[in-house]
Write a structure and sequence with these properties.
Distance between the termini: 46 Å
Number of strands: 11
Mean pLDDT: 93
Number of domains: 2
Structural class: mainly alpha
Strand order of the largest sheet: 2-1-7-9-8-11-10
Low-confidence stretches: 1-12
Largest sheet: 7 strands, mixed
Number of helices: 28
Length: 719
Amino acid sequence: MNRPERTEGATPEQRPPYRWALATFVVVLVIYVLTVAPTTAFWDTSEYIAAAKVLGIPHPPGNPLFVILAHSFGLLPLAESYAMRINLFAAVTSAGAAGFWFLVAERWLRGIVQVRWARYAAAFGGVLVGATSWTVWNQSTVNEKVYTVSLLSIALVMWLVVRWGDDDPGQHRDRWLVLIAYVLALSSTNHLMGLLAVPALVVYVLWTDWRVLTRPTVLVGILVAALIGVSLNYLWLPMRAAQYPPINEGEPVCRSLFQAITLQCHPLNDVLNRVQYGKPPLTERQASFWGQLSNFWQYFTWQFARDWGRLSGVATAVFAVLGLSGLAALWKSDRRAGLAGIALLGTLSVGLVFYMNFKYGFSQYPDQANLPREVRERDYFFVGSFAVFGAFIACGLGGLMQGIVDGLRDRGSRRTRWLAATPVLALALVPLLGNHATASRAHETMARDFAYDMLNSVEPYGVLITAGDNDTFPLWYAQEVEGIRPDVTLANLSLMNTDWHLRQLARRQTPAFDPAHADSVWRNFPVPARPTTPALDLSMPEVDSLPEAMQVPANGGVSIDSIQVRFGQDVLLRQDLATIFLVRDNQGKRPVYFSWSDGGYPDQTLGLSPYLVSQGFVRKLMPRVVQPKDSIVLSQGLGYLDLPRTDRLLWDVYHWRAATRNRPYGWVDPPSGSILQLYSVVYGGAARSMEAAGDKARAALADSVAREVNQELGGRSLF
């Protein structure tokens, strides 16, 4: 076996280059800051930013470490916008990971490249490739997920593992192992992704000194460190949940902390085990394993030059060969590091593909329309593999430079031979140039603007029934972070199938309507008295007794005052029952609205079409059957339409210019395009009614908005 060179007490040549790692961090951070999102974004971004602001609990597994770190970072006066501060948190943690990957790559390169400056250059080049890989870059400029913290923890653990392996045997080295155990356990309270460095750690331990695991002091230290690290899950989560913050998904409230730490608290266990998602066991594949591997390869091909169309395939081939050759060179120069690298890459790619057991990708096999698919692209789950691949590309760049120098043999001086090899480092700029247009989040404000538009479509103290993540999370953000229309009660159809969301609706006290945080359209509006009862006026036992599903008579229904609810199916889900109670409990107290993002839900499931009037992005439920009149017209596509209210919303309230903003590649996230499509649907439908009413100028402008949005959605495909 090759004994890796020591670094303790080493010469300056062998000491870790922390200053260069810091420089790497700064360069990568500058790239991220220049392309950072100015506000929130779709999917989980708004949920996590809002959770950080209110010290809440986001969706399972709750992510307490992220919430605490992001909340603390958000207190720093780095930007006026709170959302940008949290986006900068993502940028800083991801850039921090790049700094640690530089240290790891430089250490691994010592057996490949003997010249120090060339080794540093190769390490920086490879890490830059990893940092500007499309998914890594895209996730580092907006805090969409908790994965940039996981990137930092994986990179930190790998550097600690490498340092541990180079240290002399003894108590000093043993303390490194205890620290590694603590970081791993603490990282698990952010997300389990942080544990994916464990196989590489096992390789280093077994190869270097497996007997360390037999020493009682080490074992005790590791057990204690792990318990302290993981305690956030079992102490902070139940304590904070019991304070009922505004964002409290899963509501993991326990009767006592003893119940939590002894694993007897079912709500907490359900959150930590992600029971809400109901994924099948690993033996029941949701897609063929080959199809799942193919989906991972699809995402891998996005990483190096996604903006360049067909040329991206060439870039993928070049960097795949470079990274794998770097892994081979690492194996040849240092068996321990090579085996650890194989274990790490295998865990973050093939191992993760097997464990996650995804359905077919959203855009995978586009010619097979009937495949079970994920609701969005899942490339972000593999962000760790794309980042760590940069370390292997660093080894590949170093090996390529060394090969050029060796090939030149005695031609010129040693210095000129190395200078002749430096042009290969230009390859590291390819992802920076080939991804900057679509990985950047700069100037994109659509999610925040949509939230403002949607909330200000609703009259004071209204109840707004939404459909899912993208039409709800930005509204949570707007209410909890920017204070926009908190008087609106949000009821999410998909979440109303859970007991915790219904309990929160039944518990929520309606904040007072504040004209200063509402659009001017509502400032002179006759504001009703503030409701004193929750929007869902059920007791907690009544909420908990709602069944998950209920058989009802075919073509049956129920009367609520003069409203006749007609069932469109013979089974009602909990969300349907809750919606009926919301309608019942708010007659004469609050206006009830359905978002147009709900599609035909109120029509097909509850038969409410005769009672709904479109007002911009929402449909107001009227107390009796709607009759067309001067202000209410029957519109093709939008049903009954309040034309004056819609006209004012479209031109005085909504951010239609943000919706039609020119984007070089169109809307780059097709799964969330349905939200942008609302602008096309509503403006296009209103255009026809405006033209019928004789307002041809407004009709032409509305039609142009609809067409421009459609062009954005139909922009040059990235798939």
